[in-house]
Amino acid sequence: MKPYLLQETNWKNIKNQPYEVAVLPWGATEPHNYHLPYGTDTLETARIAEDAAAKAWARGAKIMVLPAIPLGVQNPGQIGLPFCLHTRPSTQIMILEDIAGALHKQGIRKLLLLNGHGGNDFKPAIREIQPLFPKMFIGLAEWFRLANKSDWFEEKGDHADEMETSIMMHYYPGLVLPLNEAGSGKSKEPNLEGLKNHTAWTPRPWDKISEDTGVGNPKKATPEKGAGFVGAITTQLACFLVELAECELPVLYR
């Protein structure tokens, strides 16, 4: 039984144990090339949250990881793929407000969202919700931005790529098909130079940019790369969770 993992603990453990920080993993449900499961974003984010909380708990920080939310914002071209679940940003705001409101009533004043899906954009949601709970900390961490990917992985990409494949091979090897069954993850670039150099942005039409739904070649992935990467980022996250648990609200700035 893990006292920092809500799905595995019970009322007997929670009843007399004060908790300082709630962590909300948030992923998505979508195709991930041919070799990774639809739940990749949610599964890996939940495990990263769990590992970070375990490290923080070992240092005395009372952290609770909430059940992961598998509902992400999807791009055109993804939305029409079978069983790709699309959730509007406005729906995510309502879900987040309900969860923050429940925690606030229970006396839990620190909530960290851990995002694991690039299509989710929680900064506007937090800005909308924060005024409703002025004495509550609502923060965001996006684990895929916490470390320099090139320090760990050889191939560029951002969806079912070498990084995600390595992480899933580390955490859930039984859910990863042999890499000879994976697509190449080759993606097309936009025609407009301003989109290529990031002068402007528009959602990527997924059915036009990728034949296998992947973006990035997964063939050089290994579980060892995944273990090293998540080890580094969960240690970084754990340090912040300890710091957050120890701080007094509302004073976060001197």
Looking at this structure, what is the CATH superfamily? Creatininase
User: In percent, how helical is the residue content?
Assistant: 25-40%
- Determine the strand fraction and express it as a percent band: 5-15%
Number of helices: 8
Distance between the termini: 39 Å
Structural class: alpha/beta
Tell me which CATH architecture applies here. 3-Layer(aba) Sandwich
Strand line-up across the major sheet = 2-1-3-4
What is the residue-averaged pLDDT?
96
Number of domains: 1
Radius of gyration: 19 Å
Low-confidence stretches: none
Polypeptide structure, described:
The protein has 254 residues and is an alpha/beta fold. The chain has one domain (18-244): Rossmann fold (3-Layer(aba) Sandwich). Helices cover 35% and strands 10% of the residues. It has helices spanning 11-14, 40-58, 89-105, 123-129, 162-171, 193-196, 206-209, 223-246; strands at 21-26, 63-65, 110-115, 137-142, 157-159, 215-216. The chain has a four-stranded parallel sheet with strand order 2-1-3-4, with helices on one face. The chain has a two-stranded antiparallel sheet with strand order 5-6. Strand 1 (21-26), helix 2 and strand 2 form a beta-alpha-beta unit. Helix 2 crosses helix 5 (162-171). The radius of gyration is 19 Å and the shape is globular. The chain starts with 10 loop residues before the first helix and ends in an 8-residue tail after the last helix.
